[in-house]
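Entry 12.
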Amino acid sequence: MKGTSRFWVRGAAINGLLAVAAGAFGAHALKTRLAADRLEVFETAARYQMYHALALLGVAWIAARAPSRWTTASGAAFLVGTAIFSGSLYVYALGGGRVFAMVTPVGGVALLAGWALLWSAAGRADAAGPDRGA
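Predicted 3D structure (tokens):
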């Protein structure tokens, strides 16, 4: 596995691990400690973190076949977006002020950008030639 692809797989693995841990923590330790609306926010953060861990596997797959700045930008947008989106929701759910919830849309925009960039990266990978290894 090449360095760039390995980086994205590791990013996916770390985010997947943290998402599962957060989901379990929310379901077991926080269920009786948080108000229902805050628990729902916490669960949303874990769910979106997992979605974007899986998206990073897509980035790794494309990066292994046709690395480009679009692929790198997509992965970076997913990492930054997840940190801001899920991170701000985790902090808000655990008692942080509304300012944390107000930062969440910035992360959401980064996640949307990541998906658009991934779409572009996939199109460029198709234009680069036949799929090598799939």
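Annotation: The mean pLDDT is 93. The chain has one domain: 3-123.
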